[in-house]
Amino acid sequence: xxxxxxxxxxxxxxxxxxxxxxxxxxxxxxxxxxxxxxxxxxxxxxxxxxxxxxxxxxxxxxxxxxxxxxxxxxxxxxxxxxxxxxxxxxxxxxxxxxxxxxxxxxxxxxxxxxxxxxxxxxxxxxxxxxxxxxxxxxxxxxxxxxxxxxxxxxxxxxxxxxxxxxxxxxxxxxxxxxxxxxxxxxxxxxxxxxxxxxxxxxxxxxxxxxxxxxxxxxxxxxxxxxxxxxxxxxxxxxxxxxxxxxxxxxxxxxxxxxxxxxxxxxxxxxxxxxxxxxxxxxxxxxxxxxxxxxxxxxxxxxxxxxxxxxxxxxxxxxxxxxxxxxxxxxxxxxxxxxxxxxxxxxxxxxxxxxxxxxxxxxxxxxx
Amino acid sequence: xxxxxxxxxxxxxxxxxxxxxxxxxxxxxxxxxxxxxxxxxxxxxxxxxxxxxxxxxxxxxxxxxxxxxxxxxxxxxxxxxxxxxxxxxxxxxxxxxxxxxxxxxxxxxxxxxxxxxxxxxxxxxxxxxxxxxxxxxxxxxxxxxxxxxxxxxxxxxxxxxxxxxxxxxxxxxxxxxxx
Lengths: 367, 179
Prior knowledge:
The complex is a heterodimer.
Chain A: E1 2-4, H1 14-34, H2 39-42, H3 47-52, H4 55-58, E2 64-81, E3 83-85, H5 87-90, E4 105-122, E5 127-144, E6 151-159, E7 162-172, E8 176-186, E9 194-195, E10 206-207, E11 220-231, E12 234-245, E13 253-254, E14 258-267, E15 273-284, E16 288-289, E17 315-327, E18 334-366
Antiparallel strand pairs in A: 1-6, 2-3, 2-4, 2-18, 4-5, 5-6, 5-7, 7-8, 8-11, 9-10, 11-12, 12-14, 13-16, 14-15, 15-17, 17-18
Chain B: H1 4-16, H2 28-41, E1 44-46, E2 58-63, H3 67-77, E3 85-90, E4 102-105, H4 115-120, E5 124-127, E6 139-144, E7 147-153, H5 154-159, E8 162-164, H6 166-171, E9 174-176
Parallel strand pairs in B: 2-3, 2-4, 4-5, 5-6, 7-9
Antiparallel strand pairs in B: 1-8, 6-7
Helix pairs in contact in B: 2-3
């Protein structure tokens, strides 16, 4: 579904963003939700709380988990590698010579939101399955040097790629735990959203660039590995995650694989409020192949905007952030998790818009 | 080629995290029993007449073959808060009569174990067996639906020269003075 206020071109692939961001955070969230109460956690509960704990709260018996998460990411301004650029640097102004570094259309501000619904089932005390359904919306503002398209905004929304993830806890001790996760992302999100872009003039509908598409169009493999170690009232963790994409989609491209590592520190001294810090490093590869419909035919510069060029995708990002988990039930079977992060380092491929901050809030319920 | 170092880092992560294929599986009921017992132990104090300073560690005894022993080991490793509790896993039932401040008595433990003798030796006994308090036990864990509650035998505590915090006594299902 595309609601257009005018043509569009974005910069950060929504599908890429969503899959990495969703998978990156949600798998860990799933783990936390399914972790139930470990002996280690029980030892921190007060006697009053322990007397309220039901055996099923700590059992390995089959349990269900429902989760809703809202995510928001703000993207604006430009970078070439690590060098910051202004909109004016990127916009092809009248009278200026066209090069590979300036474009007649420049996305300016992007607001990406996702509503992620997931359902999980604990098959055994070690293994759980989780299926997630994202509903995503992206709104992008543009400036342009093309007549009738000086300023415009475009919005896309719809159901994204559905992911099925299995999580196996292969290690548990009083003070540490480790798990591995594998999953598949199915190409249920659209890669054929259209809009009135300047590519063929006004009042025409053309296929939107990669970032405006809600899905990846490919079957993707998801994997994660997590390890957490308690030290006094703190839990220190390291999580590795990747998304490996396969083949080419029907529009003859494939979004880039991504690989990420996250270091976490959570304060577990309080039973109902758990603040934490995290530092993440993530790299995303460029797009492979390209969507021929995005090109301006018979033109020495076939890319009307940065986001139409598949080489202007991916890069390396380091982010730092904080989160706080509020346990509504004694054993945290019902909890709210707030998380925010800001990039502290971005080394982007080609010319891209840079991320400014991200925020998410989730409510998880297991029963 | 640009991303080789990232690939390497990711692979390294996979390879360096310790893999323990023999994942722990435990009975959640035992886990909860152990958690409550371990927590209760934190509120046990020595009567000044015992001659030991109150800051010295409390010794929590459990027979090594008791299913709860492994769970108590988890609790112990997870570290006590205000007071250090030393978990002692016993190989011999006779050892319950010497040097234990708190003892977890499993239903599987032999009937020949004398709860009163253990109390006389300074141990607050915790158990789940029916009639545990009447037999001279100190604290009985009682399953109440999906939860556990506890009852206290003040007589046994006095015999062991131990006291239990008044705050904890308020949480008890029943506080009695069994003979």
